[in-house]
Input
Amino acid sequence: MSSWEFILSMLKMLSALALVLGLMVVAMYFLKKFMNRTGGSIETDEFVKIISTRYLGPKNSIVILDVLGHVIVVGISNQQISLLTEIDDRESLERLKTMRGRRIQSPALMDQLTLYKRKLKALSFMGKNHAVPD
Output
């Protein structure tokens, strides 16, 4: 194999690698845009929080929401979202708070990725400040 053929094959390999990496970056950009539009975040200052969701069937569910301190129950179907009731009863609200404290909710995908990213940043920050002996 001559050096000229080696250089050409190297250029082909690098251009293919650049194309694949570029496609991955574009895919992550659109995934992030889509996830930000559909899901909440892990920030504590949200105005609307999903307390609980119960799926009743395909594309049908009941959701308990906390909207600016008001607890409301909505029904969600394929065609519409309907307000079912607002929970004002103190006893029900207290019971809901205790049940929510016991229940472990799985966060959305972007929430999990954000938590993982923060953990990695914390670990890398600790690694810079505390050198590990060889």
Observations:
- The chain has a mean pLDDT of 78.
- The two ends are 42 Å apart (CA to CA).
